[in-house]
Amino acid sequence: MTAQLKQLRDKIDAIDSELLKLVSARADLAREIGEIKNGTAYRPEREAQVLARMRELNPGPLENEQVARLFTEIMSLCRSMEEPLTVAYLGPRGTFSEEAALKRFGSVVTSLPCNSIDDVFSKVEAGKANYGVVPVENSTEGAVGRSLDLLLQTRLKVCGEVALAIHQLLLAHHTDLARIRRIYSHPQSFAQCHEWLNVHLPHLPASARINAASNADAARLAAEDESAAAVAGKKAGEVYGLTVCAENIEDDPSNTTRFLVIGEQEVAPSGRDKTSLVTSVRNRPGAIHELLAPFAHHGVSMTRLESRPSRAGLWEYVFFVDVEGHQQEPKVSQALRELVEKAAFLKVLGSYPAA
Ligand SMILES: C=C(O[C@@H]1C=C(C(=O)O)C=C[C@H]1O)C(=O)O
Question: Separation of 288 CA from ligand 1 center, angstroms?
Fold first, then answer.
């Protein structure tokens, strides 16, 4: 070892000793906080503030996203000193939902992969998991209807959101595209990579695209079949030991999926929040305008408006609305009070830190 290398490693050792002391002191404080605070250990608003502060203070060379990942992991450890959390997500292992759950909660949780979005809701409702993570919309393919329908029915609250850049890969046993006879994927992922597949696998008819229950399931099916490929994420490829034929095959490079965290908790304001609600108006001229007017009137920005057929039969459509701000903020609460007078139905799904 050269003298220079030894000198640099000695410096790293000294820093590691300091880091260990600091992280241990932090964990002790978290445990102390756990003893004095009531209710659940996980406080999304506080964690969002910690991450925002670290992004602000970041001196480099690490990128803000890397710093956020590091501190999410530190908080995950500190939180586990207070209370071990179980997080349910749309499985199996290797799905983007798992990635979203990790991004929000870090790795020091018990993860509970579920077979369906329905199952994620029921696990949390039954108290088998503290929180659930479900996809709610994709920038290419739009709303995930089942999540919206269940949000309408559930007594659970929306406690958070996660935005995840979705990069799709073509995975197989080898990289010879000409030998691929069929491709497995989730319909959403097929739709996100439609053009790429047409251009790069022109020999395959549409019937060679076979729908799977999830991307991870598609990877599992491809792993069992030498002449098959899967469109799925990196993680799924790793879980099932597949070779990467092509990366970033999504037609839109900014392809993003938004996930919601659901749980029993009412989240306090973080200073930069969103509120999700579902509402419906009686079917008459100007009805939609009436629905939007209270937000405009109180200067509340709407970030999303999604209509969905009502299944109750009583009204034709329900509208899923996201607005900026926490329901405890005066302008949001005033707008909601005004809306409740006009709407045939209003359910506030929750306020939570904006991703
Ligand atoms: C330490 C706390 O508990 C948890 C852990 C946090 C942390 O490690 O910074 C932050 C919020 C909570 O999820 C707290 O409430 O402050």
Answer: 41
CA distance 323 to 302: 4
Residue 257 annotated in active site: yes
Is ipTM beyond 0.95? yes
Q: For ligand 1, what atom is nearest to the CA of residue 82?
A: 3
CATH fold for the domain made of 169-248: D-Maltodextrin-Binding Protein; domain 2 (3.40.190)
Give the atom of ligand 1 at the shortest distance from the alpha carbon of 46.
Answer: 11
Q: In 3-state terms, what secondary structure has residue 175?
A: coil
The residue whose CA has the least distance to atom 2 of ligand 1 is: 30
State the amino acid at position 17 in one-letter form. S
**Quick one: 84-166+255-265 is in which CATH superfamily?**
Periplasmic binding protein-like II (3.40.190.10)
Residue of 190, 259, 319, 320 marked active site: 259
173 lines ligand 1 (CB under 6 A): no
Query: Is the shortest distance between the CB of 41 and ligand 1 below 6 Å?
Result: yes
47 ligand 1 Cβ < 6 A: yes
The predicted model scores a pTM of 0.93
- State pLDDT tens for residues 152-187: 999 999 999 999 999 999 999 999 999 999 999 999
